[in-house]
């Protein structure tokens, strides 16, 4: 909200434009990372556990619709109205978001680390300066202990570890493709020979499939089960990134993108919802951060890989390599079994029932007077 209006003011403030863009991009990227992690972490405190798949699906639908279908044309109108308007309008929208979020009722404060998990007792205070230094050291030690606890849980849980590695592999392959696809698709000298507007339509097919998938995922989960959805998402992902290696037909590639978009959202909803159900209530932020570090940290590596493969073997080779990487993720299905997910959820429910400590959220079903506890 603060950074975007400043971006439009770089010339009046005498700031070099490229460095202003770098600073704003860094700030926005950091803010979005914090927001995404916090939003996933508080959702189990807003809805019941059995409503998480539906809630995550709706959130994906709104986010994708805004990012892919509303945002781009709106930005075109704002740029036509002037640079200041283009950068000030997002700040206004974020202010509206803050106003909407502020009245949300509930306890969203993260819990603390388990006693004995490495936290040291506070020493007796000495002089005033020593006391302040002691408090700072204790806070640093506590933060370090809590981060370590989140990392231990995320990496120590076999399902979460497998999910993170599968998501990281998926992002590695898809980022490699997205890094070079404009060279493959746009321009009279490219293999596909698309114009810029046609390329935009091609990318919109993926976004459209994702929006459709976000609405269908709850029904598909009931009908086919979670294991089938994750397995299918790997296959549709391989189809999405591998089809351009076989054809330059935009209709076939667009159809593969639609199926890939449906599969991506379906697996995301299943994995995120399960992670929210089985993570202890005191750990959601830390576990989500550790998970996303592995799952999303491969994206820049994928872009680098795509460029290197294209340089050595050509553009089509990138799609073939990405498809092989996608198919290799099927090895994770030896861990991702229905019984394993059910056992993890049962253990989380038992842990929740035995935990009467502070920070356990309560959700009330509007259709009944019962009070339900959720485990994030």
Automatic annotation (TrEMBL):
<keyword id="KW-0472">Membrane</keyword>
<feature type="transmembrane region" description="Helical">
    <location>
        <begin position="316"/>
        <end position="336"/>
    </location>
</feature>
<keyword id="KW-0812">Transmembrane</keyword>
<feature type="transmembrane region" description="Helical">
    <location>
        <begin position="293"/>
        <end position="310"/>
    </location>
</feature>
<feature type="domain" description="Major facilitator superfamily (MFS) profile">
    <location>
        <begin position="157"/>
        <end position="376"/>
    </location>
</feature>
<feature type="compositionally biased region" description="Basic and acidic residues">
    <location>
        <begin position="121"/>
        <end position="133"/>
    </location>
</feature>
<feature type="transmembrane region" description="Helical">
    <location>
        <begin position="77"/>
        <end position="102"/>
    </location>
</feature>
<dbReference type="GO" id="GO:0005886">
    <property type="term" value="C:plasma membrane"/>
</dbReference>
<dbReference type="InterPro" id="IPR011701">
    <property type="entry name" value="MFS"/>
</dbReference>
<dbReference type="GO" id="GO:0022857">
    <property type="term" value="F:transmembrane transporter activity"/>
</dbReference>
<protein>
    <submittedName>
        <fullName>MFS transporter</fullName>
    </submittedName>
</protein>
<feature type="transmembrane region" description="Helical">
    <location>
        <begin position="198"/>
        <end position="217"/>
    </location>
</feature>
<feature type="compositionally biased region" description="Basic and acidic residues">
    <location>
        <begin position="341"/>
        <end position="354"/>
    </location>
</feature>
<dbReference type="InterPro" id="IPR036259">
    <property type="entry name" value="MFS_trans_sf"/>
</dbReference>
<feature type="region of interest" description="Disordered">
    <location>
        <begin position="111"/>
        <end position="134"/>
    </location>
</feature>
<dbReference type="InterPro" id="IPR020846">
    <property type="entry name" value="MFS_dom"/>
</dbReference>
<keyword id="KW-1133">Transmembrane helix</keyword>
<dbReference type="Pfam" id="PF07690">
    <property type="entry name" value="MFS_1"/>
</dbReference>
<keyword id="KW-1003">Cell membrane</keyword>
<feature type="transmembrane region" description="Helical">
    <location>
        <begin position="162"/>
        <end position="186"/>
    </location>
</feature>
<feature type="region of interest" description="Disordered">
    <location>
        <begin position="341"/>
        <end position="376"/>
    </location>
</feature>
<feature type="transmembrane region" description="Helical">
    <location>
        <begin position="224"/>
        <end position="245"/>
    </location>
</feature>
<feature type="transmembrane region" description="Helical">
    <location>
        <begin position="251"/>
        <end position="272"/>
    </location>
</feature>
């Amino acid at each position: 909200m603060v950074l975007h209006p400043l971006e439009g003011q770089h010339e009046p403030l005498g700031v070099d434009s490229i460095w202003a863009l770098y600073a704003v991009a860094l700030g926005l990227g950091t803010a979005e990372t914090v927001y995404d992690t916090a939003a996933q972490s508080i959702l189990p405190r807003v809805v019941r556990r059995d409503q998480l798949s539906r809630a995550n699906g709706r959130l994906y639908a709104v986010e994708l619709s805004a990012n892919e279908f509303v945002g781009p044309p709106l930005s075109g109108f704002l740029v036509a109205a002037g640079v200041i308007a283009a950068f000030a309008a997002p700040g206004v929208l974020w202010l509206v978001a803050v106003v909407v979020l502020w009245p949300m009722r509930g306890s969203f404060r993260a819990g603390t680390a388990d006693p004995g998990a490495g936290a040291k007792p506070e020493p007796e205070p000495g002089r005033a300066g020593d006391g302040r230094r002691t408090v700072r050291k204790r806070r640093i030690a506590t933060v370090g202990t809590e981060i370590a606890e989140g990392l231990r849980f995320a990496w120590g849980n076999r399902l979460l570890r497998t999910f993170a590695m599968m998501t990281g592999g998926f992002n590695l392959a898809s980022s490699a493709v997205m890094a070079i696809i404009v060279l493959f698709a746009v321009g009279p000298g490219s293999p596909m020979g698309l114009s810029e507007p046609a390329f935009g339509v091609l990318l919109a097919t993926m976004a459209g499939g994702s929006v459709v998938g976000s609405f269908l995922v709850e029904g598909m989960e009931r009908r086919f089960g979670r294991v089938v959805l994750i397995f299918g998402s790997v296959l549709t992902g391989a189809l999405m990134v591998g089809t351009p290696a076989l054809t330059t037909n935009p209709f076939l590639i667009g159809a593969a993108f639609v199926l890939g978009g449906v599969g991506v959202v379906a697996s995301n909803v299943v994995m995120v919802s399960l992670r929210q159900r089985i993570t202890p209530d005191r750990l959601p932020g830390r576990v989500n951060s550790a998970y996303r570090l592995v799952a999303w940290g491969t994206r820049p590596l994928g872009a680098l890989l795509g460029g290197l493969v294209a340089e050595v073997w050509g553009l089509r080779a990138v799609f073939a390599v990405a498809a092989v990487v996608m198919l290799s993720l099927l090895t994770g299905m030896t861990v991702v079994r229905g019984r394993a997910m059910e056992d993890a959820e049962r253990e989380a429910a038992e842990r929740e029932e035995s935990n009467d400590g502070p920070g356990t959220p309560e959700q009330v079903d509007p259709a009944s007077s019962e009070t339900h506890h959720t485990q994030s």
